Amino acid sequence: xxxxxxxxxAVGLRERSTNWAIARFGRxxxxxxxxxxxxxxxxxVLALVIGVALVLVISSWPTITAFGFRFLANxxxxxxxxxxxxxxxxxxxxxxxxxxxxxxxxxxxxASIFIVDFCPRPxxxxxxxxxxxxxAVPSVIFGLFGFLVLAPWLQLSGEPWLKQHLGFLPFFQGxxxxxxxLAAGMILTIMVLxxxxxxxxxxxxxxxxSQREALLALGATRWEVIRYAVLPFSRVGILGGIILALGxxxxxxxxxxxxxxxxxxxxxxxxxxxGYTLSSVIANQFGEATPGLFLSAVxxxxxxxxxxxxxxxxxxxxxxxxxxxxxGARL
Amino acid sequence: MSTTLRSEQQRTTNPxxxxxxxxxxxxxxxxxxxxxxxxxxxxxVVIVLVYLIVYVLKQGIxxxxxxxxxxxxxxxxxPGGGMxxxxxxxxxxxxxxxxxxxxxxxxxxxxLAEFGRGxxxxxxxxxxxxxxxxxxxxxxxxxxxxxxxxxxxxSGLSGGVALGIIMIPIVARTAEDVLRLVPQELREASLALGATEARTIVxxxxxxxxxxxxxxxxxxxxxxxGETAPLLMTAFGTTFWSTDVTxxxxxxxxxxxxxxxxxxxVQVNQAFTGSFVLILLIVLASFAVRWAxxxxxxxx
Lengths: 331, 300
Hints:
The structure holds two protein chains of two kinds.
Chain A: H1 7-10, H2 13-25, H3 29-59, H4 61-67, H5 70-73, E1 77-78, E2 83-84, H6 87-118, H7 121-135, H8 139-166, H9 181-205, H10 209-217, H11 222-251, H12 254-259, H13 278-285, H14 293-325
Antiparallel strand pairs in A: 1-2
Helix pairs in contact in A: 3-14, 4-14, 6-9, 6-11, 6-13, 7-9, 8-9, 9-11, 10-11, 11-14, 13-14
Chain B: H1 2-13, H2 22-62, H3 66-70, H4 84-115, H5 118-133, H6 136-151, H7 156-181, H8 184-192, H9 197-225, H10 229-232, H11 252-260, H12 265-293
Helix pairs in contact in B: 2-12, 4-7, 4-9, 4-11, 5-7, 6-7, 7-9, 8-9, 9-12, 11-12
């Protein structure tokens, strides 16, 4: 079939490229370019996330194959005998984080209930401002405070007092050195408090006024309003905040490294013991790490931290996104 | 507590009011106990946190002088000296981090707010959030393995890259939030005038959200200025002036860390002063920008 000279041959490059882009992508060239550019950057970010995981796995492969799960159960982290394990570090990480949450949850929840429900109006804004300010303080400054103020105080007053009055408990035994699991747990408590307060405050503020008023109208006391209207409504969000705080505590490096003592002791119940956490193993050992199993062991410690915090964050986000779907707080 | 008072008054004025049952007294008691506990906890928390901040600031301000900003640390804890190289290093590192983190974060935000629909966008958003929760030392390890070990040298550049990665999720999520606040009508008006999608975003949407985006960027810069762990294994620290990004570079946080553990009282005092300067830097940056731009408040 003989076609007449088509219009597309007559028009310029600019229009032809426009026509091509519209035919191919359904939009104009500038948009194709811009979308492509945006997509490129997004792919770089994705590659980074995947890259972090890959690099950690590949670099720690020697110890993964050499020790397998024994890496988690082995007590010694011993470059001299070339045997590596992180049991004391895992124990220290879990113990200090559990300690921090044990105290930070009631304190933080109480404080945020106070801020939202009982606080005199003029105090509310400065209190919220103050807790935000603390969330911005760098962890090395908490470490400085812990090492220079908290640990000496614990050694001279805190731990002797505990031993005298509660010494029959297994938690308060052994040498009083100031630095140790107790100091690390206390510093972590202080560090996660602002986070727990900020999240639970936000969530509690989203409780509809009508819910509170309905209960008040039924003759409920203020505690009953909190118990039956506020807490059930914000339960999921608060739990998400707590898990975020757990992730923070599990991964915290500097403050803990500075006060935990960094000497592996046999895992025991006493909080006076010095210890290790996974992150403090990395911070302490990377400098000496020689290529081979030693280097690989340090990186595998990092891989474990990565996996643990990945899981906690996954849980927290999942809880919060289910909350979002229900129309609750957007965090 | 006021409820208890009121019910007692009513009882005396109203003889037909029944006496409170045991259940009623229990309820009121529980109420008072909980309120008292909450007040107590709040007071305790405030006292602990205020004590910490005031203590660090008070110790720090005592040793603040001009030398602190212009001099190098003295060797072996001799008196005098400062943290000039650390302050300079922090500024350079944060600058490098901004170069890495802002483009990546901003374009991710544009994607998520403007184009991102469906499952892929959900996955991207989720991963960016996860990136935000990963302990920062992990990014230090990542850069250490990828850049420092192959180059066999700690460097300012690797420190900047590590901090830049940490900035990405913060910038991306704050920018996405403010981009979403820009009213849809604005976009539609621009498109109706014949502007391309790209032009609409660059000339209409981003200017409308600019204040919020800048606030997010400055907050992210303040946040990475306080990072220590990833710098330990990348920038490493030095006690000399260093502007060469291929060489080890100091940072305020690194110097605070080293001097805190120092046996010399002079250096310990300087660690406090360093903390004072760092807190001031972070607080001033975050509040100056909130004040200057009106923060995240929507303008429409």
